[in-house]
């Protein structure tokens, strides 16, 4: 009989040993695992192949198998599949992202250094310049980098993992929303695009170490976007 993956991962973690010189968590041989888990070799190999595909396991020819933690691709796959199967929808992803980023902006206001503030302001400047030059792709990348930088400042891997997963599943939608906002609010000569300049309020609040103002500025940022894309 097979075992469920969560039980298997816990069992493997208990039996894994750090490899001298690398610190990698090396697993016992298949023969030892078959005996300790009381399953057939075929069932074990099937389960290990599944863990390898999910990113929990790596195998090196001639050295053995190693247990590890998957990167953001694991949660990205989960969100992608949930979206495709209709278990989670765009509105739920957007709402989760907004709540997460509003909280992150408050935390960033407490933790940001002067260098962090300079980088954030530079990314907004880049958005403004790129939009003025009609380089919407460059403006988009600066926009995405800005929001990811807030998570870098907070430096909590759990939130970063969630951000990467949500950002991945929403990327195409963000591109479409930015395109819609650009079409709805064409620039007049000498004018800056509000979907770019609205980020300055977030930067100012972070620079002032004002968490409440940062939350309000991020909320306003999403309200501006919604009003220009017909979602508000």
Task: Give a written overview of the molecule.
There is one protein chain. This protein is mainly α. 72% of the residues lie in helices and 5% in strands. The protein is built from ten helices and four strands, in the order H-E-E-H-H-E-E-H-H-H-H-H-H-H. Strands 1-2-4-3 form a four-stranded antiparallel β-sheet. Helix 5 (90-111) runs antiparallel to helix 10 (211-229), helix 6 (114-132) packs antiparallel against helix 9 (194-207) and helix 7 runs antiparallel to helix 8 (157-184). The longest helix has 28 residues, at 157-184. 22% of the residues are buried. The model has no long low-confidence stretch (mean pLDDT 90).
Strand order of the largest sheet: 1-2-4-3
Output the structural class. Answer: mainly alpha
Q: What share of residues are in beta strands?
A: 5-15%
Number of helices: 10
Average pLDDT = 90
What sequence of helices (H) and strands (E) makes up the elements?
HEEHHEEHHHHHHH
Radius of gyration from CA coordinates = 23 Å
Largest sheet: 4 strands, antiparallel
Shape summary: elongated
* Helix fraction bin: over 70%
> Segments where pLDDT lies below 50 for 5+ residues?
none
Whole-Å distance between the termini?
Answer: 53 Å
Q: How many DSSP-defined strands?
A: 4
């Amino acid at each position: 009989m097979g075992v469920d993956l969560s039980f298997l991962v816990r069992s493997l973690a208990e039996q894994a040993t750090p490899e001298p010189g690398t610190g990698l968590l090396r697993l016992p041989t298949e023969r030892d695992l078959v005996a300790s888990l009381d399953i057939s070799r075929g069932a074990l190999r099937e389960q290990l192949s599944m863990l390898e595909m999910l990113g929990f396991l790596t195998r090196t020819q001639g050295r053995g198998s190693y247990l590890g933690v998957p990167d953001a691709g694991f949660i990205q796959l989960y969100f992608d599949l949930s979206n495709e199967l209709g278990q989670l929808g765009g509105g739920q992803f957007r709402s989760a992202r907004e709540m997460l980023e509003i909280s992150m902006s408050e935390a960033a206001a407490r933790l940001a250094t002067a260098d962090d503030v300079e980088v954030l302001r530079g990314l907004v400047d880049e958005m403004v310049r790129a939009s003025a030059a009609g380089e919407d792709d460059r403006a988009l990348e600066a926009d995405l980098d800005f929001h990811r930088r807030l998570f870098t400042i907070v430096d909590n891997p759990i939130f970063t993992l969630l951000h990467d997963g949500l950002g991945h599943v929403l990327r195409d939608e963000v591109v479409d929303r930015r395109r819609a906002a650009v079409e709805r609010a064409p620039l007049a000569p000498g004018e800056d695009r509000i979907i770019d300049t609205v980020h300055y309020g977030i930067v100012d609040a972070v620079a002032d170490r004002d968490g409440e103002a940062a939350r309000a500025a991020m909320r306003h940022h999403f309200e501006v976007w919604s009003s220009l894309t017909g979602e508000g």
